[in-house]
Amino acid sequence: MSTKNKAGLDALLTPEESVVVLIDHQPFQFANLNSHEPTMVVNNAVGLAKTAKVFDVPTILTTVLEERGGYLIQGLRDVFPEQKPINRTFINTWQDERVVDAVKATGRKKLIMAGLWTEICLAMPAIQAVGEGFEVFAVTDASGSGSKEGHDMAVRRMVQAGVVPITWLAVLGEWQRDWAREKTVPGATEVQAQHGGASGVAYAWETQLLAGRAGSAA
């Protein structure tokens, strides 16, 4: 197990040490999302959730005042249809004991978080969790704010507190680590094809070309 190494192989993520918390990807939060194109954040958040499922990484879903702010977006609910998100009143997710207890129950210390908005729903629990001994990774492209400045300042503040910024595709790459790990290759490849943007399009094209060559050789 890693011991908070900031460099070297042990600083990278592994599925066995990771736990994911997705915070407040709800309609009300998306309504004032201006730091990113909203559909991109939806794409990335769902891509991250699907990746966690492929690698069997425990994932905790949470909402705030969902009766007013709306239910969790359908894309995330579709990935984990059996899970009811923890609906909070606390602005700071980490002050809700149910969320903290769910994380601690996994026995894992590398905490991967994404949420709306970055400077509030993500930064507050991330900074607190670091102070309580967790290694926290903030997935910046599956999160967002009411402004680019709000997002950027939140990332800077988190970095000062010891939070590590990362993107969802970087999480996938670190969990997979080796394409010889064949068990997760089909799932990881499928997630990239669905949510990897131009990389997914290029993969589909490559698959088409390879299938054509195989047909020609037959």
Keywords:
Rossmann fold, Isochorismatase-like_dom, alpha/beta, 13% strand, Hydrolase, six-stranded parallel beta sheet, globular, 10 helices, 218 residues
Q: Biggest β-sheet, characterized?
A: 6 strands, parallel
In CATH, the homologous superfamily goes by the name Isochorismatase-like
Instruction: Characterize the overall form.
Output: globular
The secondary-structure element order is EHHEHHEHEHEHEHHH
Distance between the termini: 49 Å
CATH topology value: Rossmann fold
Continuous helix count: 10
The strand line-up of the biggest sheet is 3-2-1-4-5-6
| Helical proportion, percent range | 40-55%
Mean pLDDT: 94
Write up this protein.
This protein is of the alpha/beta class. It has one domain (17-179): 3-Layer(aba) Sandwich (Rossmann fold), CATH 3.40.50.850. The chain is 50% helix and 13% strand. The protein is built from ten helices and six strands, in the order E-H-H-E-H-H-E-H-E-H-E-H-E-H-H-H. It has a six-stranded parallel β-sheet with strand order 3-2-1-4-5-6, with helices on both faces. Strand 5, helix 7 and strand 6 (164-166) form a beta-alpha-beta unit. The longest helix is centred in the last third of the chain and has 20 residues, at 198-217. It is globular and about 60 Å long. It starts with 17 loop residues before the first strand and ends with a helix. GO terms for molecular function: hydrolase activity.
